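Quick one, probably user error.
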């Protein structure tokens, strides 16, 4: 046995002894199963979150400190689970620990201060664990309330969030969650922004990832930036990121998605399919290869095989919005309305704020002449600066199909004025350009 193996075995034996000791301690003091979580906290937690203090304006609406803190953590968990990044572990939470740690509480009925036990264990092992805490304060202004979010990490008193926000309590919680995610895991923040259609903030966070000291995330963010360039037809820029990533980590499996995608954009669906099958061979339990395969087969006009791969995507990753959108669009292209509506409805019910998923669902409802339901979805996104044009076009198409001539004329003028200030981006032109021309030509 070599020296490194010997030390590995000794370390494993030490950790096993520590764990057994903690379990024994739990038995003696009656901590039970919850107390064993103290060991899990030692081994997995990088950050512990303390209750964030809130102003009376929050408490008056039922959002006390503990509820607000849990809502913020729940929002972050939702972002982590629903974005389409290939990165599986995020740095804000330890694996399997997505709730407020019990170490902040004295365990009821035992007389044991779990926080003290955890601190003792960490100190004994020479481990340093950061704590996150802070406060949200409020100041009344003539036109409403301005909230100031201040979240810090101790013991170095590093400021993670320092932001002033106006809006509802839920708006503040959303903003706090995103800014906290930006500070603790900028790549996942980038992927979350991009999944919601916010390319500007996605690119901003990618720049942060590529310039910070955490080199492990660079490959994920380079891959994501290649996706963004491909979406906007900047194929030369995408190829630069692909080449850079190929040089630095040629065995990075998600890179095959970018290579497959750029091949499809160039019309080489056979090469795209080859790269997709290589992804599936190397990572058969991941959904990205099956999505690339479905899109490649769709380009090759092999609809039945494409459908099988799309269904596989949904089976492997039902907790993210993208697959529902892809499957819904596929069935819409096939004019299979029942299956399109089923996929889009299922996705929209889980992700009711995802713009493209819900707007595509609205399009499908409109095509089924379910105008009231479709228009209610379009209206939800009229205040979204990135998707207002899409929503206005959908509303106009609904008025046109119902032959509401006078309302349509007024709506068309609203749309023209909007476009003077907000011209179509290249990506918008690809997505809705033909529909716009048909509506206002």
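Nope, works fine. Designed sequence:
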């Amino acid at each position: 046995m070599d020296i490194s193996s010997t030390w590995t075995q000794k370390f494993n034996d030490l950790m096993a002894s520590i764990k057994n000791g903690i379990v024994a301690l739990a038995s003696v003091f009656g901590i039970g199963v919850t107390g064993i979580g103290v060991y899990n906290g030692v081994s997995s937690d990088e950050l512990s979150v303390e209750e964030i203090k809130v102003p009376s304006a929050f408490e008056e609406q039922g959002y006390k400190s503990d509820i607000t803190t849990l809502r913020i953590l729940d929002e972050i968990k939702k972002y982590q689970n629903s974005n389409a990044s290939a990165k599986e572990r995020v740095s804000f939470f330890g694996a399997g620990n997505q709730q407020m740690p019990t170490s902040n509480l004295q365990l009821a009925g035992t007389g044991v201060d779990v926080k003290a036990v955890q601190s003792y264990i960490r100190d004994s092992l020479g481990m340093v664990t950061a704590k996150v805490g802070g406060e949200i304060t409020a100041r009344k202004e003539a036109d409403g309330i301005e909230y100031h979010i201040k979240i810090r990490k101790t013991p170095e008193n590093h400021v993670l969030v320092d932001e002033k926000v106006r809006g509802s309590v839920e708006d503040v919680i959303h903003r706090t969650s995103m800014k906290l995610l930006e500070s603790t895991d900028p790549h996942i923040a980038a992927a979350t922004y991009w999944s919601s259609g916010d390319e500007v903030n996605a690119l901003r966070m990618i720049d942060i990832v590529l310039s910070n000291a955490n080199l492990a995330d660079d490959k994920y963010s380079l891959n994501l930036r290649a996706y963004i360039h491909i979406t906007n037809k900047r194929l030369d820029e995408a190829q630069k990121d692909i080449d850079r990533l190929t040089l630095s980590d040629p065995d990075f499996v998600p890179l095959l998605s970018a290579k497959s995608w750029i091949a499809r954009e160039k019309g080489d669906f056979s090469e795209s399919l080859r790269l997709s099958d290589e992804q599936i061979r190397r990572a058969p339990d991941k959904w990205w290869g099956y999505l690339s395969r479905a899109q490649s087969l769709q380009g090759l006009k092999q609809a039945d095989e494409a459908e099988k791969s799309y269904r596989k995507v949904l089976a492997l990753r039902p907790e993210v919005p993208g697959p529902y959108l892809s499957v819904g669009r596929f069935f819409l292209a096939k004019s299979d309305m029942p299956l399109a509506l089923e996929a889009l409805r299922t996705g929209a019910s889980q992700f009711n704020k995802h713009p493209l998923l819900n707007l595509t669902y609205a399009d499908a409802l409109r095509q089924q002449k379910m105008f009231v339901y479709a228009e209610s979805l379009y209206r939800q996104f009229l205040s979204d600066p990135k998707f207002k044009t899409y929503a206005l076009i959908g509303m106009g198409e609904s008025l046109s199909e119902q032959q509401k001539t006078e309302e349509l004329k007024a709506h068309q003028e609203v749309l023209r004025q909007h476009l003077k200030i907000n011209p179509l981006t290249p990506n918008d032109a690809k997505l809705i350009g033909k529909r716009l021309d048909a509506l206002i030509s």
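The first helix runs from residue 3 to 29.
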